[in-house]
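Students often ask why we bother encoding 3D structure as a string. The short answer is that it lets us treat folding as translation between two languages. Here is a chain of 454 residues written in the first language.
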Amino acid sequence: MALNGMQIYKLLPRKNCKECGFPTCLAFAMKLAQGGTEAEKCPYMSDEAKAQLAEATAPPMKTVKFGANDTEYTLGGETVLFRHEKTFVNRPRFAIMFSDIMAQEEIEKKINNINTINYTRINEEMYVEIAAFRCESQDKDKFISLIKKVTESCPKVVPMIITESPEIAEAAVGICADKGPILFGANEQNYEAMTDLAKENKLLLGVTADGKENLYTLVQKLQNTGYKELLLDAGSRNLKGAFDDMVNIRRTALLSGDRTFGYPAVAFVCDMSQDKMMQLACASLFIEKYASIIVLSDMDYSMALPLFALRQNIFTDPQRPMRIEQGIYKVGSADEESPLLVTVDFALTYFIVSGEVERSKVPSWILIPDAGGYSVLTAWAAGKFNAKSIAKAVKEFEVENKVKTRELIIPGKVAVLKSDIEDELPGWKVTVGTEEAAALPNFLKKYKAKEAAS
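And here it is in the second language, the structure alphabet:
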């Protein structure tokens, strides 16, 4: 249960030493209650008080990790049911399902799809994070061979070992423990052995049961063993049942404050439908409500583009606009004679503008200055998108070494900046472009024809 400022204050040494950065212990306690600082900032707090505060101030959903090194991921830690209330914290991760009874041709196809999906969108690299391995043959050697083949072929994926056999699980963990795999399959019959294996290797443990009530009882037993690095599955393999499970688990944790269900959950979309588009629809739903791992049969670019874009949009802090990295971007086969456009670093604006420039088939450069992550008019009104910021970007990104035209095309809605930019950039000509991005293809074609004629 959360503590208020006065309750926290009673746990402090009350020295008013100011070493925490606050003038009094009371001020520190009030800020700590709001989540604006950390208990570790107090150098004199007892370990017992720190432990009590850690428990009281921890989010209702536990934060857990899996993977290792560059492929370590964080799940859980959520504090709200709806993104607009504050923000969602840790985005879900996608897994592709493999089975040890699957034909080699299908395995190769999935491996190829995993390795093909790798692109960057708004400064985030998009790729499949998990390969899920389901042991259906109960042949330990065959199962281990499958894991080795896929993990060697797809070095970025983290294995998710799915088996109810502690013996097979131990053998599988043994060949990929350095990758920080997820161990999935703890149930009422095997949870003690599976928990021991997870503890020994410090793994995220997937817990499954037939229904929410049975899952709740099983999680309590696991918590009593002292292990709380858990991933939940209430067993439903149809869309309606799985959706109901996800919502009820999240509501129990966040609204009731019941930490028995305060763990991330997994959705096995691969078992809900064999139809590709239906899996896409189900995965889209569980991005929003409320899966932390979404397991698909396969994923190609036609699925990856909408799923990754939706995930990125949902798991972006609504109080912080999505920004594109500042710099100069090449569209098509742009060279030193190609036109140079400037726009803001608000991601949506950039993608609309760059899309229209691509549609024009006119190779171009797009310059992105620091505009605070706002749209064109908002950035201009806030004083972020102005002659000085544009001139600074021209110099900082050495634009003069990339283009010879010495002409800059600015958005039509900020035509007022024309003379100011020319003052800041002597020797440059500023052309006022279109007010709407949709008009850019026609504008650039006429601009290019005019340049060619001159």
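Translate back mentally: The mean pLDDT is 92. Keep this in mind for the problem set.
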